[in-house]
Amino acid sequence: MADILLIEDDVTIRTALSRGLGELGHAVSSSPTAFEGLRLAVDDRPDLIVLDLGLSDLDGVELLRMLRAVSRVPVIVATARDGDSEMVPVLDAGADDYVVKPFSAAQLDARIRAVLRRAGEPAPEQLQVGGLRIDPRARSATLDGAALDLTPREFDVLHYLAARPGEVVTKRELLTEVWRLPYGGADKTVDVHLSWLRRKLGETASQPRYLHTVRGVGVKLVGPA
Ligand code: CA
Q1: Cα–ligand 1 centroid distance for 9 (angstroms)
Q2: Distance, CA 45 to ligand 1 centroid (Å)?
Q3: Between β-strands 146-147 and 140-143, what pairing exists: parallel, antiparallel or unpaired?
């Protein structure tokens, strides 16, 4: 049972999901517009937001970015857009999970419970690999004492790798565990983020210090020798 905010402009879907989630024990408030939804998200502090991407007053991804600037509330995106590649920018913007229309209230409820379970897990302790220090609670990282300016996704990738120092992690595993795209997504997405991360760590693929490519397999994070 959770306080759910549903932002959805389609009155039929909004009504059906509000009723369905209510019957499953959730307290549901809803908004047909992005701006009203943003106000409710800030004022009422729901436990989780279900956000339709196709809103009439503002693109759902834009709303998600605005929301993420002020809140870490778990967000499940509801979309008619299929295809994992289209979901990458949405997940990069900070969505915790997504459902593709049409879906039932029971399916959504299962996702809600999984996302809330993850969100409720205690944040792990600080990690240190060489001069790299990662603080999962603050979602911040430093290298040799200097703060790294990371995007949320870059932080997630670095955190995932730093929790497994010396272990080779495949791009598929990163897509599944960090991007939450178990069935698709392009390796290129991972490559691009790894190259940005390398630049911020002040290294290159050919002269790595921390991020080592294991050709044909994946990548691993190790402290410099
Ligand atoms: Ca819509």
Answers
A1: 5
A2: 23
A3: antiparallel
Q: Are residues 7 and 113 in the same domain?
A: yes
Domain hosting residue 81, numbered range: 3-120
Whether 173 and 153 share a structural domain: yes
How many whole angstroms from 30 Cα to the centroid of ligand 1?
13
- Residues 109, 32 share a domain: yes
Rounded to whole angstroms, the Cα distance separating 73 from 101 reads 22
Question: Tell me, what's the pLDDT at 102?
Answer: 92
Look at the chain and report how many structural domains it folds into: 2
For ligand 1, the distance from its centroid to the CA atom of residue 158, given in whole angstroms, is: 34
114 Cα–ligand 1 center, Å: 24
Predicted pLDDT at 73? 93
Cβ pair 185, 84 in contact under 8 A? yes
Could you tell me if 7 and 83 lie in one domain?
A: yes
pLDDT at 82: 66
Domain end position, chosen among 98, 120, 142? 120
CB 71 within 8 A of CB 42: yes
In single-letter form, the type of residue at position 110 comes to: A
Query: Is the pTM above the cut of 0.85?
Result: no
Closest CA to 74 of 99, 50, 38: 50
For 82-121, what is each residue's pLDDT tens digit?
Answer: 666 778 888 888 899 999 999 999 999 999 999 999 888 7
All residue ranges of the chain with pLDDT < 70 are: 82-84, 123, 184-185
Helix (H, G, I), strand (E, B) or coil at 112: helix
